[in-house]
TrEMBL record:
GO molecular function: dynein intermediate chain binding
Family per record: Belongs to the dynein light chain Tctex-type family.
Superkingdom classification of source: Eukaryota
Alphabetized Pfam families for the sequence: Tctex-1 (PF03645)
Protein name: Tctex1 domain-containing protein 3-like protein
GO CC terms of this entry: cytoplasm; cytoplasmic dynein complex
GO biological processes: microtubule-based movement
InterPro entries the UniProt entry points to: Tctex-1-like, Tctex-1-like_sf
Length: 174
């Protein structure tokens, strides 16, 4: 094999995984500052920082099998319509601008809906923006979920040069 490249035939998959894990493991030893000599040059203080995404939060089990309050379809639909009208009323279609606009709008809608007090519902927001040129558009979505607890709503907005379809999915997280 080439230098620096390991072949799966010569070493097992488990050995490669162990080696990769060993390369990424840091050993932290706690030493009391009283035990250190002031002249010791090998020891230095460095703050440890962890990415929040690496630390998994653990919650106590509540054994809830259903939501305290059902997702309010009507209120969410009205909020989305108001949001779309406010954001897109004077917007002209530009491909690159609409790409970034749809990404930021989906995040804005997600936080707007979460502020309404959705509880344990996971919110997924999707925005479809397109240029209005007399064409027909069909947008479809498939999901696997519990029809008793999970729901969705959609709103449509149009002006002279652009159309927008906002879809919000609310999936109950037990």
């Amino acid at each position: 094999p080439t230098r620096g490249v390991k072949c799966l035939a010569s070493t097992g998959f488990e050995e490669i995984l162990k080696e990769r894990l060993n390369e990424s493991v840091l050993q932290v030893v706690h030493i009391d500052k009283k035990e250190l000599d002031e002249e010791d040059e090998d020891v230095f203080e460095e703050p440890l920082s962890w990415k929040p995404s690496l630390l998994k939060q653990r919650f106590a089990n509540t054994y809830k099998l259903g939501p305290d309050k059902m997702f309010s379809y009507g209120a969410v639909s009205r909020k989305i319509e108001e949001f779309l009208k406010g954001k897109l009323k004077d917007v002209k279609y530009e491909g690159k601008r609409c790409k970034t606009l749809s990404l930021s709008m989906s995040d804005d809608i997600k936080y707007l809906i979460k502020d309404m007090g959705t509880g344990r519902y996971k919110i997924i927001a999707r925005i479809f923006l397109g240029e209005k040129q007399g064409q027909g558009v069909t947008i479809a979505s498939r999901c696997v979920w519990d029809p008793e607890k999970d729901t969705w709503c959609a709103s449509v907005f149009e002006n002279s040069s652009i159309f927008a379809v906002a879809m919000v999915f609310a999936v109950y997280f037990e």
